[in-house]
Amino acid sequence: MTTGINFNRLLLSGLITGVVLNIGEFLLNEIVFVKEMEAVAHRLNIPRPDLKFNLTASALTLIMGVVIMLIFVLIRSRLGPGPKAILVAALVPWFCLYIYAAILNTLLLDIPLRLLRIGMVWGLFEYCIAAFAGAWFYKEG
Q: What residue spans define the domains of the chain?
């Protein structure tokens, strides 16, 4: 028999997941892809993201971490509390963001396919690592 959702732990684990995601996004966009992102912004004649954009993106990424952990908490009764549930919880939003939205934005903005491929693989690892980090802090009851 399972107990109820531990909302304090859900929030904690979700925020940890979100922090790991934010670190991964910073590394990808500001270290690994910085020159490519600047070239794309220049080609599209748009400025690089400003502080307002970065703060909004960071806040939404923290919320995404909570959503990932919510998915994990909701499916662990069916898949068990182990790696399978954690991976499924990570792959659902990864698919929505990296497969669906990234492909559409790549086509719309004519982003080089190399960036798309690297970003998808990076995101896959980033989301899985973040989900495992957050799940480690979740305890029911």
A: 7-136
